[in-house]
Design brief:
There is one protein chain. With 753 residues, the protein is mainly beta. It has five helices and 47 strands. The strands form nine sheets. It has a 23-stranded antiparallel β-sheet that branches. It has a five-stranded mixed β-sheet with strand order 10-16-17-14-15. A four-stranded antiparallel β-sheet has the order 3-2-5-6, with no helix packed on it. The longest helix has 13 residues. The protein starts with 7 loop residues before the first helix and ends with a strand.
Amino acid sequence: MINLNSIHWLKNIFGFFLLLFPLLAISQQLNFQGKVSNTENEPIANASIQILGTNKGAFTDEQGNFTIAQLQPNNYFVEISHLGYQTIIRSIELGDHQNNFLFILGTGKGELDEIIVTADRRYQDAQKTATSVSAIGSEEIERLQIGVLSEINSIAPNFRSYDDGSTGTFSLITSRGISTIDPNPIVGLYIDDVPYFSTYSFPLGISDIQRIEILRGPQGTLYGRNALAGVIKITTKNPTNELTGFAGFSYGNLNAGALKLGLNIPLVNDKVFLRLDAYGLTRDGYSQNLFLEKELQDRELFNANARLKYLANDQLSFGLQFNHQRRESDAYAFYLINPDPNNIRPILDIVKDDSSVDPFEFNFDVDVFTVATTQTFAFNTKYETNFFTLNSNFAYSNTKYDRADEFDYSPLDFQYATGGSNLNSCSNEIRLTSKGLSSLDWTTGVFVYLNRNTSNPALHFGTDLALTMPQLTDLLPYERIDKSEIDEDGIAVFGQVSYRITEKLGLTGGLRFDYQKTKIAVDRTFDKPIQPNANYEEDVEFDGWSPKIALGYEANDQVFLFANVSRGFRPGGINEFVLDPDKAKFGSENTLNYESGIKTELMNHRLKLNLTGFYTTYTDQQIFTLLDASTFSIGTDNIGESRIWGIEFESKYVVTPELSLALNAGYLNTEIIAFDDVIFDPQTGIPSTIDRSGKNLPVSPKYNANFNLTYIQPISKKINFEGVVDLNYQDDIFFDVPNVILQDSYALLNSKL
């Protein structure tokens, strides 16, 4: 293993370059000017012009004119917007002979938008990016009514997000057949460049969003650990120099109500801006616990954001963000379905449990609940020159998780758990990105983080356990309390370079090194002399390399070909509740992905057709299994290997300025190559091994598709009629590795007028 001290010299070199580059920031300055009008050639006053990726922006005057001063000759992406018109994004080339532009805003669109993404940590046209990335902007987010993380399935093929179906406090995400219910995600989530380290910290509600990007396949080079299957990048709306606000309310069945509010305030003109928003959602349940006469599956969600931005000057800006989110649910609407006489079902005849007759009626004795509260603070410093942009993103978050869990799903007092956890995460990324070079682009940086998770679950063994284990009759009931503390300290150094070999051919190469040290301390106690109390401390180190190489070929301005190879990495860890150190540790897992594709824009930029094929190997796969039969300890081990291949199709057609159609479709073929599943027989106490090779990966639909129709008809200069129909389909999926628990195929229709 590589000691943390051995890479300190890399940080020193990085710091040297931070001091060196400002000396180069002297170059020719130009003015970017132009006019914004509508389709009737009438000037639009107070339209917003923003140069993406910079602090530069302006508003038009009464004649629709604008000027943005002191820009370097370069290629830029410009966003033009005004209330009542469709926002447009255009690429411009600013030079000695061209710095005056005309932009026309309409209520509809006669051609495809330029979809701008930051997949490579710089602004790029999605159709000219040598990776699988899909994105939608704020207007489409509103039309698709995306308010929670589990509603993003319309964005990309072979990428699904689900309500977890039980606790209601996190979203289950699967990308190209890879998924997990582990708190350590397999898809990285970044909101305004703030990383989220645990699925329990993932925000369910999302509001006031500017753009959502979905990156499919391993993204380890630029995003590091836990991005072995992809990345979700969410960008919120920037505070601006304009007083605006919004409000919305909705109501539906199950007494579902949602309220959203937002306000943008310029505190100091052209200098300090504040943006506030809040989103609340509540819904009744749809299941009943007959034993406790209580409703299950109700939900409450509250999400609030405050974003403060300070423009010190044209080069230096600061941002401060705060997010508060609370998720609450009465959940765990499960019942036993296996009639095998070796399990608990015959015993339930004693209490005449017939809850399995109705899938929405249950009988168990625990008042289950989950409550999760997350607070996140982030501070961003951005310094721009004509040659590079320096970003420093510091973030701190705290997630408190409290719950009561039923384990036997019966009216009998067998076993349940209470308690919670407290996760503190602190991270900082310093990133340097080039700008202004015609043939060479580069990004480099250092990322450090500290995570500490403390938990204190209490496992309750009830008096009815004597029905199956009479030898414990005199000791029941009793409790086992497991206090644990897990510390993760990590650092990563990364870099990526893109070089235009010819005018049409570009090569990208990148490499990242991740290092993590994990320490754990566990203290197990019993309130009765069932077993002796125990404790242990252990630590382990992990490191991993995440390379990437990609080729992009721009055949012409309508056709782009690409191919890439990339590797993803998720560090290992130590199981909390396994007291044997030799069985507690598990190693890192990796994905290696090969993909190639074609991206096209045809018919005068009215038709988009993209096709991608990929092949992924998934090695040292972390899977929950029986680790210690003597203590019936369940945990994670590296006992799986899988392979995945598939095809992805994306299309959009602007039929008329008012009507557009979109179709995304994906095909997945997944297979477990090696996995020896250990099964524990509770009657005999003897473990057995079953070969699961040849099975499909869980939550991996073979076919999935999304069809979208959008119609926008102007009624007046300020009023539009809008209609949206969005249809999502997915094939059958299994929820388990043995491929027993099946969810049939289904389609969901989402529409809006």
